[in-house]
Amino acid sequence: MHVAIVEDDPVIARAVTTAVREAGHECTWVPDGETAVRQNTLLSNDLVILDLMLPKMGGLEVLTAARDAGVRTPVILLTALGTVADKLAGFRSGADDYLVKPFAIDELLARIQAIHRRTSNKPTMEIEAGPLHLSLSTKRLSLNERTIDLTPTEFSILELLMRFNGQVVTRKMLCEHVWAFDWDGPTNVIEVHINRLRGKLDKGREDSFIQTIRGRGYALAID
To answer: Does residue 12 register a pLDDT over 60?
Structure first.
């Protein structure tokens, strides 16, 4: 399981990252809310530990934006805000669990494991956009009831485009989603995969499902 911690305190971030890795999971640190949104952290990880009092963009804003976009990745809020009102606000925004600082590392690991048990048995997830039907469990794409074989990279690209149907997805977002780390290399690497994906989706069509938004990225254009 890949876990991300969105936390501005480097001491807490290092301690949690070390503990999560020692427990057998991968873990990455994101230092602020704006970076979490830009890197699509809540979409590209299996579980996110999210502080509320973050610089640049608060944790509740990050969480609300992700839930509004249809992202259902489990989130544990880890914060010094411990009133009942704070907790209710967190759960109403879409949090799966809430842990107040100061906290015991063992308790956090137990909560991570509990969420992992619940989500590992979750039902088949499906994403639909017009005639496109994507199964996240079987890794299959259907187009008008016709099955199309995709490579793992093509599948990841299409998943992100379908989740943000009608919205611009930047090349950098796609790279970071596909390779699951902060991408700082050339973004034109994604164009090869986009062209191959178009070749599979657009047979017999005049217009492509995937539009190029000049200077910004790509968008899936399906009503």
So the answer is: yes
